[in-house]
């Protein structure tokens, strides 16, 4: 009996975000799976487009070199290692998961409110100092 996991045919599972999978409706899960690019080369190209073709920034985010990013986006001969595959998958899921997108929008709104309050405090302090 051969129990080698490499001999088994893996099912093509839809990617899911561990943080939000339980809270998403089946329609939202299907939507995220449809947006998720299939294959490492497609995922790298997707991230390059999202990062405005800024290879050094994407390389820093993924923890690899710029040459490796370009090589994998072009479809290099060697596949990325497990650490890079995990980082690539995590970044793509953060950009296509509806739950992550909603969390990011909420955090950006909170940050905008903080910035407005901070600017109001600065302007109030500036008036007090100039009125000496």
Counting DSSP E segments of at least 2 residues, the number of strands comes to 0
> Which stretches of 5+ consecutive residues score pLDDT under 50?
4-11
* Alpha-carbon Rg, integer: 21 Å
Q: Give the number of helices.
A: 6
Question: What is the average per-residue confidence, as pLDDT, rounded to a whole number?
Answer: 80
Shape: flat
Q: Can you write the helix and strand succession as a string?
A: HHHHHH
SS-based class: mainly alpha
Strand proportion: under 5%
Largest sheet: none
Task: State the helical fraction.
Answer: 55-70%
Distance between the termini: 89 Å
Organism: Streptomyces griseocarneus
Protein name: Helix-turn-helix domain-containing protein
Biased composition (Basic and acidic residues): 109-118
Region (Disordered): 109-132
Overview in brief:
The protein is an all-alpha fold and 132 residues long. The chain is 65% helix and 0% strand.
Notes on the protein architecture:
This is Helix-turn-helix domain-containing protein. Residues 109-118 have a biased composition (Basic and acidic residues). This protein is mostly helical and 132 residues long. The chain has six helices and no strands. It has helices at 26-35, 40-50, 55-62, 66-74, 82-96, 98-130. It is flat. Mean pLDDT is 80; it is low at 4-11.
Overview features:
132 residues; 6 helices; 0% strand; Helix-turn-helix domain-containing protein; mainly alpha
Ordered list of secondary-structure elements with their pairings:
Layout: H1 26-35, H2 40-50, H3 55-62, H4 66-74, H5 82-96, H6 98-130
Helix pairs in contact: 2-4, 2-5, 3-4
């Amino acid at each position: 009996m051969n129990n080698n996991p490499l001999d088994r045919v893996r099912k093509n599972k839809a990617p899911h975000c561990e943080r939000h999978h339980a809270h998403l409706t089946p329609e939202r899960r299907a939507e995220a799976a449809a947006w998720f690019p299939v294959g490492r080369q497609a995922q790298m190209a997707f991230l390059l487009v999202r990062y405005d073709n800024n290879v050094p920034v994407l390389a820093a985010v993924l923890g690899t070199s710029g040459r490796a990013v370009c090589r994998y986006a072009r479809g290099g001969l060697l596949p990325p290692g497990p650490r890079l595959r995990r980082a690539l998958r995590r970044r793509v899921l953060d950009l296509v998961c509806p739950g992550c997108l909603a969390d990011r929008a909420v955090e950006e709104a909170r940050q905008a409110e903080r910035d407005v309050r901070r600017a109001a405090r600065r302007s109030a302090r500036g008036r007090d100092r100039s009125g000496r």
